[in-house]
Amino acid sequence: MSEPWSSLPAPLAEDLASSWESVFPEGFPDWLEATEGMSEEVVAGAIARSLFLRQTLERHPEQVRVFLQPRPLGEPTTPEYLAHRWQEYLARVNDEASLHSALRQFRREAQFRIIWRDLMRWADLDETIAATSAFADTCIQGALDWLYEDACKQSGTPWGTDPATGQEAPQKMVVLGMGKLGGRELNVSSDIDLIFAFPGNGETQGGPRSLDNQTFFIRLGQRLIQALDQITADGFVFRVDMRLRPYGQSGALALSFAALEAYYQDQGRDWERYAMVKARVVAGDQSAGRVLMTSLRPFVYRKYIDFSAFESLRSMKAMISREVRRKGLENNIKLGSGGIREIEFVVQAFQLIRGGRDRELQQRELLAILQELEALELLPPQVVKELREAYVFLRNLEHALQGMEDKQTQLLPADDLSQARIALIMGHDDWRSCETALDEHRQRVATHFANIIATDDDDQSGAGALEEGWHELWLAEIDEAASAQWLADHGYEDAPATCQALKDLRENRTVQTMQTQGRTRLNQFMPVLLEALTQVDNPSETLFRVLQLVDAILRRTAYMVLLLENPGARTQLVKLCSESPWIARQLAETPLLLDELLNAESLYHPPAKEELQDDLRQQMLRIPFEDLEEQMESLRHFKKAHILRLAASELKGTLPLMKVSDYLTWLAEVVLDHVVDVAFSNLVSRHGYPKRADGSAYETDFAIIGYGKLGGIEMGYTSDLDLVFVHNADPELSTDGEKAIDNAVFYTRLGQRIVHILNTQTPAGLLYEVDMRLRPSGNSGLLVSTLQAFEKYQRNDAWTWEHQALARARGVAGCQETLAGFEAIRHEILCQPRDRDKLRAEVVDMRERMRASLGTPDHRQQEVFHIKHDTGGIVDIEFMVQYLMLAYSSEHPELTQWSDNIRQMEELGRVGVMPVEDTEKLRDVFIALRSTIHRRALQNLNSQVEAAAFPEEREYIRAMWQRIMIN
Question: Region Adenylyl removase: what ranges (predicted)?
Fold first, then answer.
């Protein structure tokens, strides 16, 4: 008798032969054999396809036996059946812990059933995505019902105005499902994107103490997330992502209908319209939810035909393409070229453009909308047919990839065994034929996407009208003398050195060992580059700078293709590298920044802070908080990309110094806010939320204070961050998770995690260098202080120089309540009455010590002037301002409202501490010195200039120092 795996492909048969006994140590069980349709051959075929199915049978055979009895796997998995099964699990629930356990065991059953039927092709795509979505709906609704009832017992029932009737009534939560959950198209192993809403403001009634409705629903939402997302001994149910809600991670977890409507009307972005197309009420109060969705419809669907949607979708696709290039995700069937996302973009472009007029397009399911696009004659039947076939193939392949290990992935496998599994699931004889079919579908999708969405100049090539001499020069088909003459005739200022640099590149070992495709791309790119360099005044010097980049992308020639196909990007590259060696080095260190050159408009117009926040939020949406490594890499690329834009703008002269510093400071603040969210989320997932004395939780109570250039809004391109961490929680209490720790330990770990994210060296470099020495007691003090401890230290133990530093401090990220507490302490400390003579002596003494340690040594002062640290430099101005702030804030408390030197000087003039003409002159000198430092940074130069520089400015600063600090 043949073995049950004998008909399987050889690698799978060998794998199953070696593992069959571990799955069935006592032989194939009678109960399984007696189950309809479950012969040994069928079971062998299933567990050959999926390690998840194999491990479930091995580890939980009794549970499988129980759930196969009422309904064999041969029957469809319907929403009605899932709802019925949940009621049986719910019957065992008597507390929150048993609710968590029941949900996770229910998941094991549902996943086993859905994945089995899908991978064996007993179910088609429609059944699989409908069952997976119905399972998610059932879990969310089931958990919410139990938790809502329990929350009402603890805190009373929330009351407010019923949006449908206008009458006072009890309120329930509305849970919106976004993305594939909203469209009833959920993957077999997917996270779920949710938004929590409630009808309106009010308070709870009937509890031991009343809560406002928002607090009630925020706490309910937190418990719902934990019920679904928290990993326990039984696993988890769904990874829950709340970042699509208004304001992302920094926004309230639950918002009233009015707040949601106001946000989308006033601040909703195009990408949020795109996300809201799929939104659906998946749990909670369905009646109230219909009212909410009706109010949001005008935001999603415009009354007019809205062709601007094309541009926003192009921008989103460009952002995804950058991610694909950076991560090497060409084998990602969702994000890569011709993948699922491009089909979704095509369909949703028509929805956003025409959905307001053509109500038939106001649906969520992609295949249904494709059918409408054909019926409305918006797409030809052949295009619809090819997109539909590709979508079904790609989604089936996506489920095959995920069902193998119950793992969320869209990457094609690289190992032979996994490839054999995928080929078997997809009905192909081998991996090669499966891959061929995939490539054909992706090529058709990419073609249709380009025809519908892509820009007209996407296919521009740069090599068309190039003079033949550039090719001959690069390929060394002419002798060295002729090459040098050619270069000199075309404006190269150092032709011999240029020839040598090109020769060195050709003889580079990496170039010598390049594969055929890479060598071809290099040979196409270099002549085009050499010709492009003739557009700048210093082509030889610029080439030497650009060759750093060329060397960096020799093994990633997709970037050469990018520059070949985008003449505008090529022009920006040579222009920026001509003007700044610092930019050239940044591009060489991070070639992904080349993507920023594709759009000259955005390159030279950095966004405002709100747009920065939105850009970061959009970029980080697809990265789970728990994927710390990817979070860190993406943050580094985000920062570098925006600094490149800023440097380009400064070089072009479109941004003055003050705006440059503002922008660099905003960038740091936006990044810090996100880092706090990531670090806090990571710790909460392990230990729960820090409790408050009133029993509540769910707030960070943590804040970051910026000192120095960050606090003073004077960031430069290479500035580090002087930070102090504070929190306003009770250190004696603990967190509310299963692995509870003291609040004090929680916040210390939070601070450590933040520092780790900021200054760990990754392949993309440092995010920011962090200096924590300004915290109370310096390096010997606690990493994170309570506000009370911080205030006590500042009152009783701080040195004068620490109060000077406080003058330039301000809250930059974290909990608004804690930031307000810090600001109150800062104001009180700065306004303390002081002995001005004693204060002046201490400030002068500190300045002399700084000058001795950081300034130019006496024997070199005839040669150089250090703009920042030498006499007559920037630090002299800063110390004068700090002295005057500390000396006069008790008389003029309004002085403390600012933390930056410029506005502090202006305020000192306004209140009469200094003559206005002096504050204006000092301000102009300060800006002139700082501007020089900025410009020199872009040329890779330090802050030292020739000794004769700035004679009038330095003399004026010395005179002011003499008047204020000496006389």
Answer: 1-457
